[in-house]
Every structure is written in structure tokens, then in C-alpha cells.
Specification:
CATH topology of chain A: Udp-n-acetylmuramoylalanyl-d-glutamate--2,6- Diaminopimelate Ligase, Chain: A, domain 1
Structural class of chain B: alpha+beta
Number of domains of chain A: 1
Oligomer: heterodimer
Order of helices and strands of chain A: HEEHEHEHEH
Distance between the termini of chain B: 18 Å
Low-confidence stretches of chain B: none
Mean pLDDT of chain B: 95
Strand content of chain B: 25-35%
Helix content of chain B: 25-40%
Radius of gyration of chain A: 13 Å
Number of domains of chain B: 1
CATH class of chain B: Alpha Beta
Largest sheet of chain A: 5 strands, mixed
CATH topology of chain B: Heat Shock Protein 90
Number of strands of chain A: 5
Order of helices and strands of chain B: EHHEEHHHEE
CATH architecture of chain A: 3-Layer(aba) Sandwich
């Protein structure tokens, strides 16, 4: 699924990285624990999170994540957005809750990235 | 690259400096990309380095991360001056953490760091002295 389609499904606003919205997303995860993201995510994973600090951008960079969606209308600060621009990580914000946003992305056919998923 | 000597990168780390936490791992990752290491291997190296770096920022007073990049492998040495780890077996268990609440609110301190480093690496060695600090040595092969 393309990032642009994710944006439509979540009715989200693009904060930065619109030039990457033709990129494909294969898996997604919803988490506020960046340690869990680093354990379970795969390359090109979409991260949905309620955290808006700089560590979220670092985690996305280190883990080669596809993009970050901030849920519940939370917006990161200017420094966080600047770093995302610098690192080439697309950011969006949706008014939906974590549960609703994850549900909609999953229903659209984007798989989760649990360890069991490796065998599927 | 001189194959025997490799590329050597050294970064100082400062405890509680969350603004620059991850910058060393980011630079290591960039060098690995420039020399054409496969992306899945780079990801394992970057995750190991970042988790180890965060451990120093969260728990220690100061430390360093050193990457020695050879044609066939990357070696990471992360050393700190800090409280050390009393029970390494316990610290290696998923979910065990001594991190305070404000660290958890930042999305870390879930007790996944050390097990995740071990999972990402081909060789993993940890030595710690309570009241002095911790040393981690990681080898990841570019196979």
C-alpha cells in the first residue's frame, strides 16, 4: 500500500516528506515503546505512535521505517520535524485514536510485524 | 579501506544527553551505507549500536561507542562509566529494567535493549563492574 493511500485512509495531514508518499508500506506497527519497535519492526514498516519526541525519529532512522503517523492529533515540536526532514522520514498526523488508526490501516491490507508473521 | 585496519569511528557519549542520543549510530549507519554493506545487515548494526548508545545515555555518567568496520564484519565497543549491572543474567531477560519512569515515558526502558542487541549480533559479550561501569563488545558479520 502506498503512503498516499495510508494518508487517505487515516484522513491524516502531511507534516513533512510529501515527496515520499508514492513509497510502499508493507507492514505497520502501533507502539509507544520504541524498544518494542526496534525489536519487532521490519524495513519499510509504518509506525503509528502517540509519542512525539526526538527518539521516535531516531528509531525510525535506525530501523529504516517507512513513515510515522502521530495519532490523537498530537503534533511534534519544530526540532523533531526538522530532524525528520533532515533524515528523510515522512511524518503525518491523524485525529484518530491509536486503536482506530491501527484498525483502519490493518483493514486496508497492511500486515502487522509480529514475530509469528515471519512464517506467514 | 585498509582491510586489516578497517574504518575506525569513535564517539563520546554523555549521560542524560537525550538530544544527541542516537547521533553516533546514525553516523555509523551512513558510513556502512557508503561502503555498500547490505541494508538488512546495516539495520542490525544500527539497532545494536542505538540500543547500546541509549543504555549509556539512560544509565551511565559518560561513555563511548567505537565502531571498527572491516570488509567482512563490524565490531562495536560500547563502554561506560556508570553504576554497572549487578546481575547480568537478569538484565538479559526481556522485560527486566531498572530505568526510571521518565525514561519509560520517552519510549525506552522496557527491558528490551540488551536482549535485542544479543538478538541482532553474531557475537555478543558484556562485562560489568558494579560502581565502575559496563563494557559491551558486539560483532556483526557482513555475510
Amino acid at each position: 500500500m502506498k503512503l498516499a493511500e495510508v494518508q487517505k485512509v487515516l484522513q491524516s495531514e502531511i507534516i513533512c516528506g510529501s515527496e515520499y508518499f508514492e513509497n510502499e508500506v508493507v507492514t505497520a506497527c502501533g507502539a509507544d515503546l520504541m524498544s518494542d519497535v526496534l525489536v519487532f519492526s521490519k524495513e519499510r514498516t509504518l509506525l503509528l505512535t502517540g509519542l512525539t519526541n526526538i527518539q521516535v525519529i531516531r528509531t525510525a532512522e535506525v530501523g529504516d521505517l517507512a513513515a510515522i503517523v502521530f495519532v490523537r492529533g498530537k503534533r511534534p515540536g519544530v526540532e523533531v520535524i526538522q530532524m525528520a526532514r533532515l533524515k528523510g522520514i515522512p511524518l503525518m498526523v491523524t485525529e484518530l485514536s491509536m486503536y482506530e488508526a491501527c484498525g483502519l490501516v490493518y483493514s486496508s491490507g497492511v500486515k502487522g510485524c509480529s514475530r509469528q508473521g515471519d512464517d506467514q | 579501506m585498509n582491510p586489516a585496519q578497517g574504518i575506525n569511528l569513535d564517539f563520546p557519549l554523555k549521560g542524560a544527553d537525550f538530544e544527541t542520543a542516537g547521533e553516533a549510530s546514525s553516523k555509523i549507519k551512513r558510513v556502512l551505507q557508503q561502503i555498500g554493506v547490505p541494508s538488512d545487515i546495516i539495520r542490525r548494526i544500527a539497532i545494536s549500536s542505538y540500543e547500546a548508545e541509549m543504555n549509556v545515555i539512560i544509565h551511565a555518567y559518560r561513555g563511548s561507542v567505537r565502531a571498527d568496520i572491516f570488509p567482512d564484519r563490524t565490531e562495536l565497543r560500547v563502554e561506560d562509566e556508570g553504576p554497572g549491572i549487578a546481575d547480568i543474567d537478569l538484565a538479559m531477560q526481556e522485560g527486566y529494567s531498572t530505568a526510571p519512569d521518565h525514561i519509560r515515558e520517552m519510549g525506552f526502558g522496557a527491558g528490551m535493549g540488551l536482549p535485542n542487541i544479543a538478538r541482532c549480533s553474531d557475537e555478543f559479550d558484556i562485562q560489568s563492574v558494579v560502581g565502575e561501569g559496563t563494557k559491551i563488545h558486539i560483532v556483526i558479520r557482513h555475510k
